[in-house]
Amino acid sequence: METIFFYITFIILIFSSIGHGIIFGKLFNIKADLNIGTYGLLGLANLTLISYISVFFFEDKSYFNLGLLILGISYFFNNLKNVNIKKYEILVILLLSIAIFISKTHDDFPFYHLQQSLNFSLNKIYIGLHNLDFFYSYHSSILYLNSIFYLPYFKYNLFNFPNLFVLIFFTLTFINYIFKKKNINLIKYFCLFALIFVVTKFSRLSEYGTDLAGQLVVTVSIFYLLKIFYSKKIDISEIKIISFLIIFSITIKTYFIFYLFLILLTIFTLSYKNSLIFIKSNKFFVLYLFSFISFFFILNILTSGCLVFPLAETCFTNLTWSMPLNEVNNYNKWFEAWSKSLAGTGYITENYTMFLSDLSWIKIWLNNYFNKYFETILLLLFISIILLLSFRPYKIQLKLSRNYLYLIIFLFLILIFWFLKHPTLRYGGYVIHYSLFSLIISLVISNTLLQKEVINKRIKYLIILSLIIFVGKNINRINFELNREGEYNYNNFPYFYNKMVQYERIDLGNNILVTFVNSDVCWSSPPPCGGNKNLVGKFKMGYKVINRKK
User: Fold this and answer.
1) Are strands 513-517 and 529-530 parallel, antiparallel or unpaired?
2) Strand partners, 540
3) What are the CA-CA distances from residue 283 to residues 154, 272, 296 (Å)?
4) How far is CA 28 from CA 237, 239, 283, 392, in A?
5) How confident is residue 395, by pLDDT bands cut at 50, 70 and 90?
6) CB 490 within 8 A of CB 482
7) Chain centroid to CA 290: how far?
């Protein structure tokens, strides 16, 4: 019964997220021909902004969250006729939802993701939280979004829902367009390629963390950008969707800030005059976007003293809780060095500055990471061959929109920057690679002599096969986890493994309590939890501030 209750809750909250997307659409007069996938992503983004605001006002948010999610469910069912859910959409949801049964979470989840999400669920914002543990300096709105799913009875056991929701909504968005009667071949094949890669590659929810969710959101933004490129008439609603999703992706992971270019490229298609008209006629929407990114910056400042951590140029040194600039710079170098050398292998370098001073790191990257990188390239090449053989193009599409070419060039530039700064696929690398492959292969196969019925049939088979692979890999994984011994054994099915660790509560002064554990990992210990004890607590304007002892 517990498993059934858990699963039904999962399905209901999917519909609730879609409901919040419908609310967003009505609020900002979005009249595009949307599907439940895009509504779902917009709903998650909207809930994220709500979570940003709620952390300033509420302690235990469980009943606030319950009311909020009931509102979404109600709105969904009240607009059921307008949504027009298709049978295959329900089937896709049911198939992909198998991934929610997970024992081992992402490696960072017990380390600080769970703790952060718990803290946002049970406490108002702590100012200077990075002083307790520097990992709290790294901002991801997914952790704030997780806190919205902290509910009575279930508590923190639903924190993995948002990541899987993103995958489901991404899949539904693309499948809906692929089978839409009036679609553009080039965009249809872009969706097909990206969909096959994502569904077959990322079957384990433990792979998602906070990185892949952002990459999927960026992919959907690229999709809507392509629609604008090839539309005879500019759809203002689609411009709003791209803008909102790009801002959402930036809040998920700051390195997606480069994709602001996509918004600029979108506006560029309007011309300067029409861009001004768009801004003037959509002031409320522009204000909403500004509020979203403003809360992102404010929360960053309150946590670490920096607008964007770990960029020292964005830090304020005059705040009592601010991290010293030398530490910020050190973490920035450490992060880059880890990306270029560690890659999960345990490689350690003592001198980050020397290590990063030239290109000698490439040799270490090749030794430690190239095999994993090459596996991804092989999968991309394999999908490319499958699509080429399936649709047998007779000529390459050479008539490109200028903006399409700009997009490819932009992604190549991002690829170069990615390799030179943070060449780890989880740090935005996946979306660059599969988007480039998708865009290029789409050009090749968009012209085919095959009849439309044959094309649709083969597309259907490829999607079904991808979903079968996803389900099969998860069935095999669940079977393994049910029989796993030792740590991460599935002793609390259907909930993820959670280790109970010994901890102590310490008063930093002014009755500001923090938790310390006897291990390196806090898990679900009472938040906030960390490792630095040389701290002092005080109140500032009704909020708890954690400073270092001088």
Assistant:
1) parallel
2) 543
3) 40, 17, 20
4) 9, 12, 10, 43
5) low
6) yes
7) 20
Instruction: Give the pLDDT score at 182.
Output: 86
Query: Taken in order 251, 252, 253, 257, is the CA torsion positive or negative?
Result: negative
Going by their DSSP bridges, the two strands 529-530 and 535-540 should be labelled as: unpaired
Separation CA 214–CA 41 (nearest Å): 11
CA distance 174 to 382: 20
Give the torsion sign (CA, 223, 225, 230, 233): positive
The answer to whether residues 72 and 43 touch, using CB atoms and an 8 Å cutoff, is yes
3-state SS track over 489-520:
CCCCCCCCCCCCCCEEEEECCCCCEEEEECCC
Look at residue 548 and give its three-state secondary structure. strand
Token reading at 179: 């089978």
Q: By CB neighbour count within 10 A (0-12 exposed, 13-18 middle, 19+ buried), where does 538 fall? A: middle
- The residue with greater pLDDT, 156 or 341, is 156
- Provide the 10 A C-beta neighbour count for residue 479: 10
In the chain, domain spans:
503-548
pLDDT given for residue 320 in this prediction: 95
> Would you state the torsion angle of the CA atoms of residues 486, 490, 492, 495, taken in this order, to the nearest 10 degrees?
130
Q: Are 531 and 133 in contact (CB under 8 A)?
A: yes
Write phi, then psi, for 278 (nearest 5 degrees).
Answer: -60, -45
Q: What are the φ/ψ torsions at residue 327 (nearest 5 degrees)? A: -70, -40
The C-alpha atoms of residue 219 and residue 15 are separated, in whole angstroms, by: 22
Residues 6+ apart with CB under 8 A from 276: none
Cβ count near 132 (within 10 Å): 24
Q: CB within 8 A of 195, min separation 6: which ones?
A: 171, 174, 175, 178, 463, 466
| Distances in whole angstroms, Cα of residue 149 to Cα of each of 14, 93, 381, 445 | 11, 19, 38, 42
Alpha carbons 421 and 452: distance in angstroms, whole number: 44
Instruction: Count the helix, strand and coil residues of the chain and give each as a percent rounded to the nearest 5.
Output: 65, 5, 30
CA torsion, ordered 36, 39, 45, 46, to nearest 10 deg: -130
Q: 366 and 393 in contact (C-beta within 8 Å)?
A: no
C-beta separation of 336 from 422 below 8 A:
yes
Query: To which H or E segment does residue 278 belong?
Result: helix 271-281
Single-letter amino acid code for the residue at 286: V
pLDDT of residue 342: 65
The whole-angstrom separation of Cα 195 and Cα 275 is: 32
- What interhelical angle do 236-252 and 211-229 show, nearest 10? 160
First CA to last CA distance, the chain = 54
pLDDT tens-digit readout, 303-360? 999 999 999 999 999 999 999 999 999 899 888 988 888 655 555 566 777 788 888 8
State the chain's maximal CA–CA distance in angstroms.
Answer: 75
Q: What angle, rounded to 10 degrees, do the helices at 236-252 and 260-268 form?
A: 170
